[in-house]
Every structure is written in C-alpha cells, then in structure tokens.
Amino acid sequence: MSSSPPSSSSTRALKIGIVGFGAFGQFLSKTMTKQGHFLRATSRSDHSQLCQKLGIPFHRDMDEFLESENEVVLICTSILSLSQVINSMPFGSLKRPTLFVDVLSVKEYPRNLLLQVLPEDSDVLCTHPMFGPESGKNGWQDLTFMYDKVRIRDEALCSSFINIFSSEGCRMLEMGCEEHDELAARTQFLTHTIGRILSEMVVEPTPLDTKGFQKLVQVKEGTVKDSFDLFSGLFIHNRFARQQMQILEEAFEKTKQKLQERLDNTR
Ligand code: NAP
C-alpha cells in the first residue's frame, strides 16, 4: 500500500467511453467534462436525452461504442451486472489497445473477470473512488481514490487517467485489490449494513436527539441513497463480507447476552 501521489505532469485530454451511465457514471462525467476530456457513453437504459444536454454522445449500440476509438473504457455498471455487461461486449470491435478502468466498490471480482475476458493487449486499472454524488458534491478535495495498476503497459495513459483524480485534490491510495476488499468489508460494508438495519426500523430525528443519534440517522440516510443492487453487490462479490456479517451477528448476540446476565443478576 502506498499513498504517494502519482506525477502530476501528465495532464492531457483523454477520449473516455463510459459503460453504465447511472448515478455514479453521471457524477464522474461532470468533473471529467469540466477537465476537458472527450466523453461518450453507453448504458442498458436510454440516457440519450440527458447525454444530449450534457454534450456527450450516447451509443445504444455497443459495437459502435467500442469502434469509436476510446483510449479509456470506464466501467461504471452495478457490481451485480458486471459479468453480463462484460461478457456481452464485442471486443473484436476495438480499434486500438485500450485502457479498461473499473470503479466498482469491490475489487477482486472485477480484476479477475477483466483479466479473464479482455483482449491481452488491453491494460487494466482497478479503482475505487471512496466517495459518491453526496460526499463529493462540493468537490473531491481530500477524498480518497484507491487504485491498483493490475496490468499496465501504457504508463503515460494510465497516469493521465489517474491524474483526473489527483488534480482534483483526492488522497491517492495505491493498494492491492485483495487488501482493498478486506478493509472495505470491515469499513464500508459494515457501515452499509448498519444503515440498512436502521432503515428497517423507525430511526427518525426527534426533539430529544443526542449527537450520537444524529450520526446514526446520517448513516441510515447516507446508505439508503445508494441502490440496493450496490449494497447486495458489496455482500455477494466481496468474499470478506460474509465473515464480517457473521462477526456482526456474534457481536449482537454477545451484547444481548451481557445485558440478559445483568438483568438476571438484578432479579
Ligand atoms: P448501481 O445501482 O450500483 O449501478 C447502476 C448502473 O448499473 C447503471 O448504469 C445501470 O444502467 C447499470 N445496470 C444495472 N443493472 C444492469 C443490468 N442488468 N445490465 C446492464 N447494466 C445494468 O449504482 P451507481 O451508484 O450508479 O454505481 C455504479 C458503480 O459505481 C457500482 O459498481 C458501484 O459499486 C460503483 N461506485 C458507486 C459509488 C457511489 O457512491 N454511488 C461510489 C464508488 C463506486 P442504466 O442506468 O442504464 O439502467
């Protein structure tokens, strides 16, 4: 793991094709457009009207999208749909060696799949911006950008892409995909799980709120803004998440048991 920033000497406009133009793809596109990169997009749903407003060409046809000489293909689909999306891409339509970058919130799974299915001359950069439309709405300064240079031959192109994030002031964190998943299960997955549990209860602001309770409400509200697909993906495609769920269950049982013992002793 290293958090030294990559060289900032590599600013140039890139041709970036976004696959999956949902909430997160749209969010990233705003900053990339502001920086002067040339974007195009494709997605399962028809986002052509929005793209037209944003000045981004939208392709319904994947052949056409891949033929359009993107230097970078940025994968922003849901974790659950990755396999279907990747396996239906006609890679024969690529006109040049391409850098494939994913932004999925799990990392071993896309790394393994991309290495398995992409043409050998494609480079692979696995990333996880540790922020989203809510936490990054006022800029990306000091927000963490995790990346793993899984298979990089064109270093200049890779560092130009990484520079999109470092030039916005992100905290750059180079880390292996396995270490990412282990830590993310203990941090992000735990937060989302607690938030989802709270959302199954009535956890709303009251006139009597403590600061601690206000933070709980924030956790609940923050996590339910993300799709349930995203949350399920964190569980299904991170092998460390199952273990974390078990630790949480055991901790809950242990806490209940301790209270029960106190109750029994006061009788
Ligand atoms: P999401 O629910 O995880 O993904 C929505 C995207 O997946 C949309 O582009 C949607 O396409 C596509 N999709 C869903 N099911 C599909 C299917 N069956 N076939 C093809 N495409 C399908 O929500 P998100 O917040 O936009 O996240 C996108 C990715 O970014 C995820 O991998 C997530 O882990 C990652 N990420 C998100 C955040 C965040 O804060 N939201 C932060 C870091 C990383 P259509 O729009 O065309 O329907």
UniProtKB/TrEMBL annotation:
<dbReference type="InterPro" id="IPR003099">
    <property type="entry name" value="Prephen_DH"/>
</dbReference>
<dbReference type="InterPro" id="IPR045011">
    <property type="entry name" value="TYRAAT1/2"/>
</dbReference>
<dbReference type="GO" id="GO:0033730">
    <property type="term" value="F:arogenate dehydrogenase (NADP+) activity"/>
</dbReference>
<dbReference type="InterPro" id="IPR046826">
    <property type="entry name" value="PDH_N"/>
</dbReference>
<protein>
    <recommendedName>
        <fullName>Prephenate/arogenate dehydrogenase domain-containing protein</fullName>
    </recommendedName>
</protein>
<keyword id="KW-0175">Coiled coil</keyword>
<dbReference type="GO" id="GO:0008977">
    <property type="term" value="F:prephenate dehydrogenase (NAD+) activity"/>
</dbReference>
<dbReference type="Pfam" id="PF26213">
    <property type="entry name" value="TYRAAT1_C"/>
</dbReference>
<dbReference type="GO" id="GO:0070403">
    <property type="term" value="F:NAD+ binding"/>
</dbReference>
<dbReference type="InterPro" id="IPR059064">
    <property type="entry name" value="TYRAAT2_C"/>
</dbReference>
<dbReference type="GO" id="GO:0006571">
    <property type="term" value="P:tyrosine biosynthetic process"/>
</dbReference>
<dbReference type="InterPro" id="IPR036291">
    <property type="entry name" value="NAD(P)-bd_dom_sf"/>
</dbReference>
<keyword id="KW-0560">Oxidoreductase</keyword>
<dbReference type="GO" id="GO:0004665">
    <property type="term" value="F:prephenate dehydrogenase (NADP+) activity"/>
</dbReference>
<feature type="coiled-coil region">
    <location>
        <begin position="238"/>
        <end position="265"/>
    </location>
</feature>
<dbReference type="Pfam" id="PF02153">
    <property type="entry name" value="PDH_N"/>
</dbReference>
<feature type="domain" description="Prephenate/arogenate dehydrogenase">
    <location>
        <begin position="14"/>
        <end position="267"/>
    </location>
</feature>
